[in-house]
Each structure stands twice: as C-alpha cells, then as structure tokens.
Amino acid sequence: MDIDAGLVSALLAEQFPDLADLPVRPVARQGWDNRTFRLGDDLSVRLPSAEEYAAAVEKEERALRFLDGRLPVAVPGVVAIGAPGHGYPFPWSVRRWLPGDTVEAASPLDRVALAKDVGGMLAALRALPTGAGTAAGRHSFYRGSHPSAYSDEVQTALERLDVDAQACADIWLTATTTVWTSAPVWFHGDIAVGNLLVRGGRLSAVIDFGTCGVGDPACDLVLAWTHFEGEARGAFRESAGLDDATWRRARGWALWKSLVVLSGQSSPDEGGEHRRILAEVLADPLV
C-alpha cells in the first residue's frame, strides 16, 4: 500500500483541519506494522500498513489512555483517531511525539543501567490492573499466549535449517511444557531496541503497543538474548523478576523468532542478526 506524506496531509485536511497546516515528514526508520510520520514538532501520525494490523488501532488507544502516566517512563498518548479516507481503508491515529533516541540508534549506552530500567518498567507494567487490556490472541499475534501456538513454525524451521536441531528441540520442549499459572498480566508484546527510547543514557519511553494485551509476560523477556549479554543480561533477569519457568518460555520465544526469520517464514535477517541471536539462545539458558 502506498502510504506517503501526501496521503497523510489529505487525511488531516479532511478530518482534522486544525492540524492540516503542520508539516508532515516520514520518520527515518519505519516499522513493519505501521507507517509513521512526524507532524510538526509535537505530534506523529501512525497508519497501519495492512489489514491485519488495523484492528490494533482501537485496542492500542484504549490501552495507552490507561497506561499514560502509570509507568515509570512515557508512552505515546493518543490525541485523535482518524477514519478511512482518500483510498486509505483503515483507521489511523494522531499521537504525541516523544523525544529521545531508540536504543538501536543511540550512542553507546550503559547496558547494565538500561537492563535495570527496562526490567523495572516491565515489573511496573505487570503490576497494573488489567481491566483496560485485551486478552492475548490473534490481535497480539499470540504474544502473551502459550508459545506452543507456533510449534508448527518451529518444526518447519528445524526441517529447513542447518542448525543443531536436537538442541533447538530440547529448548522448545522445555519452553512449551511450562505454563503461566498466575492471573493474566499486562504485556507489551514487542520489547525490542527499536521500541525503547532513551534520553541522557536512561530509558525514557516505550512505544509501539500494537501487540499489547494481558496474558503471559514471557514474550516481553526476549531482550535478554537479543540485546543484553554478560552482566547486563543478569541485571535484566534480576530486575524483571519472574520465575524460572517463565524465563524458559521466554527463551522459547527468542528461539522461535530467530528460527522463523532464518528459515524464511518471516522478515529477512538483516545483517545476520538472527544468526547471532540464535547462538546466544543456544549458549545461555539464563536459568
């Protein structure tokens, strides 16, 4: 779908004329699920890139209105919800622009401090009442559900790839033979370096709640293998908390993602990143 600044300007002029005079420009690095544009200095516009992501607009608005001000870091509060128009068939949103750099774009960071910040934020998220959340399922691409939802993809990957299939199968079995036995809690669903903002070297905001919901928080722990290592990995484990079984499921989530990327069932492996992550997952059980 062709989503550009011209479309955004036309939608604004039609539905939010008070914002139509603000300059519109695409952000430098776009996500997979949505296209994001800067609107003036203080706002952004976010448009789902395909039908499967459009259902998250209303859910995310409801979640963000509840979460705003209740976490130790900022979230992108929703200013307005737009309707389809000018050939664009989905709802879309106007949000507050949050200052800061993504972790992946920031200058070298103290990863131990970052690990403690992210872990503490996740602990605070889990502690909140869940009434405004949506139970994990298809809308969250099964984040927050049991990892066995993706057992077929793991099996397909192991048949295609030249990897240590037995080691991978053992990790997956360990992950999928435990369950979340407590009451459902909030999860973000995509805790990745592109969705974490830092200012002054510390975590300042979390963005992209499109896959959020309530359920099993194990999916939010994969940063232990995708970004942290050594002392920082241990600091994240300690600050995020949770029992060993949940961390085993988290390792399964990290394994699944790298396997589906490397086997061609998901987005391409840019720069060989998932080869590195798979090696980390195989080498360090963390529990």
Automatic annotation (TrEMBL):
Recorded hits in Pfam families, A to Z, give:
APH
Gene Ontology MF term list: kinase activity
Q: Which Gene3D superfamilies does this UniProt record tie to the protein?
A: 3.90.1200.10, Phosphorylase Kinase, domain 1
This protein's UniProt keywords: Kinase, Transferase
Instruction: Keyword check for ATP-binding, yes or no.
Output: no
Signal sequence, start to end: none
Every Aminoglycoside phosphotransferase domain range: 29-253
- Give the highest taxon in the source lineage: Bacteria
Which PANTHER family does the record match to this protein?
AMINOGLYCOSIDE PHOSPHOTRANSFERASE-RELATED-RELATED, BIFUNCTIONAL AAC_APH
State the name under which the record lists this protein. Aminoglycoside phosphotransferase (APT) family kinase protein
